[in-house]
Every structure is written in structure tokens, then in C-alpha cells.
Amino acid sequence: MEGPLPMEGPLPMEDTLLATKFTVPPRPQRLLPRAHLHNLLEQALPRHKLALLCAPAGYGKTTLLAQWAHATRLPVAWVSLGEEDNNLQRFLRYLVQAWQVIRPEIGESRLHLLLATQETPSEAVLAAFINAASEVEEHTVFVLDDYHLIHDAAIHDALTFLLDHLPPALHFALAARGEPALPVARYRARQQLLELGPEELKLGVDESDAFLNELMGLKLDAGAVANLNEQLEGWVAGLQLAALTLKQGRGELVQGAISGRHRHIADYLSEDVLARLPDEEQHFLLQTSLLQRLCAPLCAAVTGTANAQETLERLERSSLFLLPLDDERRWFRYHHLFAGFLREQLKRRLGEAALQQLHRRAAAWYLAHDVPEQVVPHAVAGDDAEAVVQVFSRFVNARLLSGEIALVKQWIDALPAAWYEKYPVLDLARAGYLAYSGAFEACVRCVNEVEQKLLPLDSDEARGYLAHVVAIQTFLACMQNDLQQAEALAQRALRELPEDDRGFRPVIYGALGDTYRYHGRWEQAKQSYLQALEFADAPPVRVEAAHIFGTLADLDLRQGRLRDAAANWRRALMAMQEPRGESRIPLPVLGWIYVRLAELLYEWNELEAARDHLSQGLELAELGGDARTLIAGYLLAGRLQLVEGDVEAASGSLEQARPLLRDATFPEWAAPFQRLQLALWLAQGRLQAAVHWSGEILEQNRPEDAHLAVVRLLLVKGDSSSLQRALQLVAVVLREAEAEGREGRLIEALALQALIYRQQGDTVRALTSLERALTLAEPQGYVRLFVDLGQAMGRLLQEAHARHVVLPEYVQALLDAFSTLPVSAEPMPLPEPLTPRELEVLELLAAGLTNREIGQELVISPQTVKKHTGNIYSKLSVSNRTEAASRARELHILD
To answer: Alpha-carbon torsion 131, 109, 14, 509, what sign?
Structure first.
């Protein structure tokens, strides 16, 4: 599989913000070397599976790990964790994205593919992670910063699994304020744990002297340094705060005025530092403290200042606990301890209204930059329901389509109850969540309640919300496969929705396309999908693009347009590969795309490429448990194996598909299954079984999908009545295929018709039918359709080539492809089927019984036995019972 497609221009804001999570924090402008700790990490980490840096805030855990990561010879995959990361799938994706930063080939691995999809079992991802890790030869370290913010038990369990199964070359380093919920005692007992606590992380007197005098530019004597170090117990953050205060002329701190309790030190010194700053910087610090991450445009929007970038850079140079998150110094964050203090000060100094206004500004900026995950918490804190309404209107459908149901629920649960009464769109979002989570009846009740609230209102806003109600009702009708109701509702919704609506219109078109397809209305389905694609930049379409292109490919395939189908499958893959932040595509869709592409490659006789795509598709289908893709994949595998002459393997593939087809509701795959079964019987020489099956098909009046398989068998029989019956069946298929515009079926029926005419001795008609088939097939590049009909088709093509009937280059290409046919592909001539009584007599003949003994066994006269024996000899073209038994075993009549 190809890697992600390159993007043109700057990354979207959501992606640049996400990238900071995987970037090792840059070196601070004032760096305190801690060589003994660097050396400890460098030497000890490769000997331990887990390093745990566990200490309260302000002990330099992140700084130490970042400095070591920049200096180490080991590859380091860095993940900065936040409260919003308490989701197992997101956590696992972050691990892999961080790994991809140092090993780009991970982006093309099965592991990356699994995590790019929805509903992938976490067990499969963890196993794939371990498998990928087992291939790593160089010691590699995953750093998880701020792991104390993770409280999801599923993440702890997953990380425990990884740690328990890590190969020797992989290691984890965690920075946390408390001991994490991992089996730390077990790792400690097994000497697999490297621990650095407050005692190891605190600054010694020499380090404090270097920090205070060399880095901070103070001129303190040894006694003053020792006094500060003792009182602060080597606490890095406390020393930094003390140094800032001393630089502002508050020397009394050195004389013993510092409390030994860190919490009080932070409050005292931070207030003193803050009070000494210019008003402009004080306001900037306080107002931006409500942001988890800072960049100049965001800070400017929140504070109303024009020089935000200069202020950020000045604060960083002043060591005011502002940490850069990327090398370009575009994104920053405050030290957690300092940020907490600033937020408390902000609450004290500002009234509720002013604080809400800051949150509203942050929400507006994030909304303008399409980062809804950051909009909702700021909008709720700012009592800005309108911003949430915008998020729900623009992004909920896309998030639901991409499988992020838990995120939508988190948004819904965060909102004040009063908002639902005032803003019906919020209840509509809740209805969407209920629909996607399977609570169908609750969804219907919710939509009906909203409609009843809106109907009495006479306003443009109410009418707009009613249009949303109708759109959701359309979607529900499509989910119920009620096409008549869906069409009526869709017409009304599309009439009432604004022309520029990008949230509901594409969803309606996509759902209608699915419903038309289920009802066999292929052309209308295609038009609906194409209308959905007109909203290419709308979030729902960006998420659903792979599905839409895939269904368009299916429609093209039904009509025999192989090249259009392949183009749409490839567009589906491209849509799947485009960066989409948190949006993911369902795993079964990926498997389906690969298998269907493999089918096209098989038809074009690109067998090696077909095997590669099939292998990927089956692997994804098996991981996702997708029965439909597995059926299609196993049947294609059987066809490929028959081309190779491996009848036993083909039989195994058929048997893998059999129970899936029996237990699943995919009737459209019954005919392809039967056709592979017939090809297998013919390759095995099990002609009696094939004849028996064809009789059942004709008696039960099975659909025309199976009729072409029966025609092939009737061709093998070759007697006059069989050929006449074959012509009748072909005529039915031709008529229906032409009426439905199914060109691929039409080509195959014409090719079989040509073989029937040839076997009847009517060469003119045979070549006429073949010429029409070739004319239709050549633009789409059909190959295996002809080759898989065996040497009889090869001989007819040779005759057409000799007579220069039509398309000589195409005919020659088909003849060249016949070199791949195994010897077993040409079935043996089929005898006239034996009757049930003749089969009974044959079995007893082969067992060595005399005519009299056979008569006694079957309660018939010896004369009747003799008559049956004569019929058996005639049908099998033998002259005695020994030859009859031998011939019957060759034909698998006696198994």
C-alpha cells in the first residue's frame, strides 16, 4: 500500500496542533546540563523495559527527558498526553504516529492501516504493535509525558500488555506526578524498572549554583545558594521562581523567608513575580492561561493584542515557565504548575462575565479554524451556546460517520440542560448520536419531540430547524430501507434546506444512494452519490468519500465498466490515505476495496498484482470480521488457485467460503460460489456431481446468475438436447442483461453463445457472436472472461484471428493469455448421466456381485439387471464391468 499522499500548502490548524504532541520539546534557551542523569538514562534505559520519572510538579521531569531525547543516540518516539487523550483508540493511534516520526515506514505498515480504520479490535492493534516491534533491531524508546493525566483503565491495561510482551529493543519512559496504575511492583521485583523520583531529580548544591548564578545571572555567594537549595529541597520550579524574584530585587528570600512547603512557595513567589511584571504582560499571562496550548494568532484573538508573538518570545526568554512545543516556536504551553496558579489568579481578578468573554473568544478562534474538539469546552465555559450550535451543525454528522460516537456523546453530556430547550439543533445532534449508537426507537422519539416543539413556532430559525428534522427523518427512512418514504422526505428536506448547507445535504444524497442501490435502482444510486461528491469539502463527504467511491465502483462493475470501476476504487484508496485528523474509515471498507481491486486485476490477467491486493484485502477482512469481503476474497483465491492448477488449494478456499455464505445474508454471492464449485468439479473430473447440481438449478428455476454456469456444463455435455437447452438459457440472459445495461454479463453470455454455435457446427453464427463480444470487451480490457472458458474458446479465437474477423491485436493478446491455462483446465468429455437405479447397479457391479446377486439385493430380475448393465456400458463407453468400475472412478462417479 502507498503511504499518505503529500499535502500542498500549510497543514490545517488541527493537524499542526496535533503535531505538537509528537514533537520533542525544543531545548530551552537557558540549559542546565544534568550530565549524571543523562548518562543514567543513556546507560540504564536499554537494560529496562520501563523508566518511570515520578515526582510532583516542578521537578523537571519533562525538561530532563526532552534534553536527553535531543542528545541520545537512541531513537525516541515522543507523545505529550492530555486529559482529552483518555480514549484507547486515540492513545494507540498516538503511539503509532509518534513511532512514524522516527520510522516513516510505519506509515505503510499493517499496524498503521489498522489504526486508520474504525472499529478495529484493540487486541488486533496490540498484537500488530508487538509484531512490528519484534522487527526492530535498534533500541527505541517511547516517551509518554504527563502520563498522570491518563485515567482510562483500558489504556492502563493496553500499556501493561505492551510492556509484558515488549521485545528487548523497545522501551517506555513515563513522566508522571504519581505512580501510574501499572504493575510497577512486578516490574520492580523483576528488575525491569528504572525509577527516578524526587530524590534523584532534585538539584544538588552545585547544580543550584550553576542554575542561579550562571543561567539566571545572579551573584549569590555559596552560603546563599546552599540556604536556598536546603529550604527548597532542590526543587527546580521553586528555585526558578526564587531566582525570578531575586532578579527583581527581593533579596530577603535568601535570608530564610521561604516556607519549606512547595505549594506555599509556588503561591508566594508566583504572586510576587507576577506583581512585578508590566501590566501588559500580566494581562497577557492571565488571559492566555485558560488555553491548553498557545500560538500567537490564538493569543491575539483572546487578548486583543497585536504583538502576541513578540510577547511569547519575550516571556520564554525571561524563563517565565513558558515551554515551546515545536522547533519553530509557533506553539507553546505554560508549565502546569504556573498555569494552575495563573488560572486561579484569573478567577480572582476577573468577574464571571469577563472570564466567559475570554472563553468565547477562544471558542470563536477554534471554530474559525475547524478545531471543534477545542471549541466545545471553551464554549461551555463561556456560556456560548451559539458556538456549540455551530459545532453541532457543521461537525457532528462527520464525527458520527467517522465512528467517533464516544466523542459526540462527550459533547452532548457536557452541555447544560437548559440549552436543549432553547436550541433544538442540540437535540437533533442527540438524535443523530442515538441513531448511530443503535438506539433507533429513542432516536425516533427524540426527533418527533423536537418537531412538536418547532411546529407552533413561526420564525425563520424554527423553519431552518424543521428542515434539519426532515433531513434526519430522511436518514431514518433510508436506514429502514423505506425508499418511498425516503424519496418524499428527501424532496422536502432538499427544498427547505439552505442551498449552501454542507451538513445535511451530502448526508441525504449519500443515504439515498445506498437505499437506491439496495432496491436495484442503479442509475439513481449513481446520481445520488455524484451529487454527494459535489460537496467534496464538506466534513461528512470527506469522511464518506471512500465509501461513496467504492459504491460507484460497484455500480460501474455491474455495468461492465471495468476501467471506471478501477478508477473509483483507486479514488477510494486515495480518499482513505488523505490526512483527516481523528476521522477514520471502517476496516471492512478497506478490505472490500482491496478485494474488489484484486478482482479487476484478475480479469485483466495481472495475476501477481491480483494476489498482492487479495492478500491485503483478506488480512483486513479477517481482522475486521467482515463476512462479505471474506466470501469475495476466498472465491477469488479459488479462481487464482485454479489458474495455477492447484485444485486442492482451490477446494480449500471454496470450503472456507461455504459456511460464511450459509450463515450470512448475502444471496448475491451464491451464484459466484456455485460457479467456482462447478469449475472445481470440472477440474476434478467430478462430472456426475456437476450434472446433478445443474439439474437442481434448472428444476428450481434459480436466478440467471447461475444460468451461465449451467450453460458451461451443458457445453461440456455437448449432446444436441444439451446444446439446445444452453441456447435457450443464453437467450434469457442476453435479454435481461441488455435490458439492465449489464455489459459484463452480456459479454460473457455472447462468448458462451459463440461456443454453443461452434459446437453445433455453425461457424458463421459463432464468429458473429464472438465478434460482438470482443467489440464490447476490448475497451474494458477483459481477458480472463475468455481465457477461463478453456481451450474451446482458444480454438475459436484462433479461427477468428486467422480470418481477421475483428480487433486482431486484442485477439492476439487473448491468445497469448491462454499460455497460463493449466492442463487440468480442459474438462474431460461428460458421459450421459446415469439414472439413480443405474448408479445402484454400478456400485454392486464394482463390488463384484453377479447379476443374480445384484437382482436379489435390489429386488429386481436378472434380466432387468442385464438391461441396466448394458445401459451403463454404453454411457461409459466401456465393454465390461472392470472397465466400467475403472471409468466410473476416473469420473468420480464412484467416490
So the answer is: negative
At 118, phi and psi to the nearest 5? -85, 155
Q: Over 70: is that where the pLDDT of 704 sits?
A: no
Locate all alpha helices (DSSP H) within 152-288, ordered by sequence: 153-165, 184-189, 198-201, 205-209, 222-232, 236-247, 262-276, 279-288
Number of separate helices (H) and strands (E) present in the chain? 47, 9
User: Strands (DSSP E) along 612-668, which ranges?
Assistant: none
* Ordered DSSP codes for 429-466: HHHHHHHHTT-HHHHHHHHHHHHHHHTT--SHHHHHHH
The alpha carbon of 729 is separated from its chain's Cα centroid by a whole number of angstroms, namely 43
Q: What DSSP assignment string belongs to 672-721?
A: HHHHHHHHHHHHHT-HHHHHHHHHHHHHHT--HHHHHHHHHHHHHH--HH
Provide the terminal-to-terminal Cα distance of the chain, rounded to the nearest Å.
45
Please give the pLDDT value at position 735.
92
Instruction: Name 142's bridge partners.
Output: 77, 172
Each residue's pLDDT tens digit, 369-405: 888 889 999 999 999 999 998 888 788 877 776 667 7
Sign of CA dihedral 515, 521, 524, 529: positive
In the CATH hierarchy, which top-level class contains the domain 13-201?
alpha beta
* Residue 441, C-beta contacts closer than 8 angstroms, at least 6 positions apart: none
Q: How far apart are CA 467 and CA 425, in angstroms?
A: 11
Q: Among candidates 396, 361, 356, which has minimal Cα distance to 380? A: 356
- Percent of the residues in the chain that have a pLDDT greater than 90, as a whole number: 27
Mean pLDDT for 195-202 is: 87
- The answer to whether the beta carbons of residues 375 and 384 sit under 8 Å apart is no
Residue 652 parent element (H or E): helix 647-663
Q: Are both 13-201 and 836-890 of the same fold?
A: no
Of the candidates 498, 474, 470, the one whose C-alpha atom is nearest the C-alpha of residue 485 is 474
Q: Could you tell me what percentage of the chain is helix, strand and coil, using 3-state DSSP and rounding each to the nearest 5?
A: 70, 5, 25
Q: How far is CA 327 from the centre of its chain?
A: 31
Residue ranges per structural domain of the chain: 13-201, 205-276, 685-825, 836-890
Decide if pLDDT at 164 tops 60. yes
d(CA 589, CA 221): 70
Q: In what order do the strands lie in the sheet with 76-80?
A: 76-80, 140-145, 170-176, 50-54, 193-196
Counting every residue, how long is the chain? 895
Model confidence pTM above 0.85: no
**CB neighbour list of residue 352: distance below 8 Å, 6 or more residues apart:** none
Integer-rounded Cα radius of gyration of the chain: 37
Distances (CA, A) of 400 to 396, 405, 435, 436: 6, 5, 10, 7
Indicate the fold that domain 685-825 takes in CATH. 1.25.40
Segment among 589-593, 631-635, 881-885 with least mean pLDDT: 881-885
Q: How far is residue 631's CA from residue 816's CA, in Å, rounded to a whole number?
A: 31
Range 836-890: architecture per CATH: Orthogonal Bundle (1.10)
Give me the residues paired with residue 685 across strands: none
**Helix (H), strand (E) at residue 499:** none
Please tell me the distance from the alpha carbon of residue 889 to that of residue 876, in angstroms, as a whole number.
11
Q: Which residue has the cell 538514562?
A: 41
Strands 193-196 and 76-80: unpaired
Compute the CA torsion angle 451, 454, 456, 458 (nearest 10 deg). -140
**CA atoms within 13 A of residue 758's CA, in its CB half-sphere:** 23
DSSP for residue 305? -
Pick from 275-289, 660-674, 685-699 the range whose average pLDDT is largest.
Answer: 275-289
Residue 193, SS3 per DSSP: strand
pLDDT digits (tens, 9 = 90+) for 132-155: 888 888 999 999 999 999 998 999
Pairwise CA distance, residues 470 & 790, whole Å:
56
Q: Which residue has the cell 499518505?
A: 4
